[in-house]
Amino acid sequence: MISANDLSPAELAALLHFHADAGVEWLLEEEAVDRFAEFEAMKAARRPASTQQERPAAGERPSSGERQTSQRPTAAARPAPVSGPQPAIPDGEAVQQARFVAEAARSLAELKTAIEAFNGCNLKHSARSTIFASGDAESGIMVIGSAPSAEDDREGLPFSGKSGQLFDKMLAAIGLDRSSVLLTQVIPWRPPGNRAASAAEIDICRPFIERQIALAEPQAILLLGNFAARFFLGENDTIHGLRGHWKDIVIADRAIPAIASLHPQDLLTAPVNKRLAWNDLLAFQAKLKSLSLLRN
């Protein structure tokens, strides 16, 4: 095992970032926990009662003491109950609950409280933060990303970290900033390890993002990333095929013009695509000016 004392500050920082991106939340706990014993207890608790009793080998007869022990196990011999995760809500029921609490919210503040209290999505149990809309809800301008990153989860805000810094520069290039638009994510909780959200998780989260849009009533939407573009445009093409084209998305019987572009994280990975994103930003800027949402 490599000791932290043998690592340089840069190597230690890289290792910590790696663990954070993999979903590790805490390095130490207040008290030592024997995970092996906990795992064995969980297996014993789930094993049918008939298999918990040890059977003698072929040709052997259990002694009277063994017969008594196997027939009447004492409390000490029984595995202690293990506190596991909360019982999962069936996906269909969770979707219905999400729709109910979303539709019941009459303001973004009420919706935020409802989402934070909602426990029907497994993603919430592994995430540190609930990412909700931030910025100016009266601006008429909405920017929607895909799902929270590890930095978003730590900071509790959408578009954080290095990709958030690039995102700020993208907004500034067309005369906007975080305070002048409404920012949010399709999924309010970070999937562990930055994995893709499952179909069931997407269905559960859909009422929340659609209600955010309905309450904010934006006049134009910028979708960032492959997942966000597919989610709203209903197509399976890649972001390179979906970006740069204005399409109406219908939310609460209201058609809203939306354009998709590459996510800032995509641009950090492949800087050569910045020219494509810049063209999309110019198209978004022109639309905002035509709607009198941005000064000339």
> What percentage of the residues does DSSP assign to strands (E)?
5-15%
Regarding quaternary structure, what we see is: single chain
Low-confidence blocks of residues: 49-54, 65-87
Q: Give the neighbour order of strands across the main sheet.
A: 1-3-2-4-6-5
Compressed to H and E, one letter per element, the order equals: HHHHHHHEEHHEHEHHEEHH
Structural classification: alpha/beta
Largest sheet: 6 strands, mixed
Number of strands: 6
Can you give the helix content as a percent range?
40-55%
In whole angstroms, how far apart are the ends? 60 Å
Shape: globular
Helices, by number, come to 14
- Return the average pLDDT rounded to an integer: 83
The gyration radius over C-alpha positions equals 26 Å
Please, could you describe this protein's structure?
By secondary structure, the protein is of the alpha/beta class. 47% of the residues lie in helices and 10% in strands. The N and C termini lie far apart (60 Å).
